[in-house]
Amino acid sequence: MRSIFKFLIYILLSGVIIFLYNTNYEVSNMIRGHQVLHSISGYVVFIAIVSILSIVFKWYYSWRYKISSGKKNNVHYGIENIANFLKGLGIFITILGSFGIAIQDLVTAVTIVAAAIAIITKEYIVDFLSGIHLSFSNAFVIGDYVKLGEQRGRVIGIKMLKTILLNDDDDVVVIPNTQVHYNEIINYTKRDVRFMNVDFQIALKFINSVEELENDLINALKSFEEYIEPSSYNLKVVEVKMDYIDLKFQYTLTNNDMEIQRQIRRKTIREVFNFVSSRGGAE
């Protein structure tokens, strides 16, 4: 409903300006004779057209792939990011137009200072282009549980310059799109979404056997046994270092309940801490 209201407002606003500009001689002369007013009116029409196209493309995409109203995925964010970029470019051109700088003069000026602009805005440009690529790629979609570099969480947004995660502690993590694009991406949702991993390290001096620790973890999760498939428990040795060992505790849930996932993960981490503490300390 909100999108429809915006769509109608943009149609009405741009229609009124175009109608007055082309049919009312006095209004047309007034707009043409006032540089700032001429630039602003052109910008309003431009913004309206960009917004209308953005709404239409998002609506068509949602209709084509049967996405319910109010839901957004990567493509929606990609369309919004492109529209926002065009609106920002429109503001820049409008400001120049208000001072009487023509577009052709702007192109000439930009070619002269292109190197300086590229150096100053390089990171922003790369972040923006990386965000567009991520928006239209299939590496992950909104709602996927992923690991981006050192950060792990559920993707809740892909903005013009940043990708936003909600991690296991309910913290909102904002990552530059460049880091996401050039770092390793692990998408856990591409596999069975019920299959869970809890990664941790433990000093070798605190562990007698992997089997003992595995049994302690399984027993600690007895209160959640109705949510976990009985034969799915597995404590996997990832890597053995000189002083510590990297472990991965794996299990499969009977259903994809986010709150249960968090509770089990929290319980597992606490049990590892208790296991270490019972042997004389924690690291």
Write the layout of secondary structure elements.
Blueprint: H1 2-23, H2 25-33, H3 35-64, H4 74-98, H5 103-136, E1 145-148, E2 151-158, E3 162-166, E4 172-176, H6 177-182, E5 185-187, E6 195-203, H7 210-220, E7 234-240, E8 244-252, H8 258-277
Helix pairs in contact: 1-2, 1-3, 2-3, 3-4, 4-5, 7-8
Can you give a write-up of this model?
The protein has 283 residues and is of the alpha+beta class. 55% of the residues lie in helices and 18% in strands. The chain is built from 8 helices and 8 strands. The protein has helices at residues 2-23, 25-33, 35-64, 74-98, 103-136, 177-182, 210-220, 258-277, and strands at 145-148, 151-158, 162-166, 172-176, 185-187, 195-203, 234-240, 244-252. β3 and β4 (172-176) form a beta hairpin. α1 packs across α2 (25-33) and α4 (74-98) runs antiparallel to α5.
Strand content: 15-25%
The radius of gyration computed from the alpha-carbon positions, rounded to a whole number of angstroms, is 27 Å
Total of domains: 3
| Structural class label | alpha+beta
The helical percent reads 55-70%
Count of beta strands: 8
Helix-strand pattern: HHHHHEEEEHEEHEEH
Tally the helices: 8
**Main sheet record:** 5 strands, antiparallel
- Name the overall outline: elongated
End-to-end CA span? 54 Å
Strand order of the largest sheet: 4-3-2-1-5
Average pLDDT works out at: 78
Low-confidence stretches: none
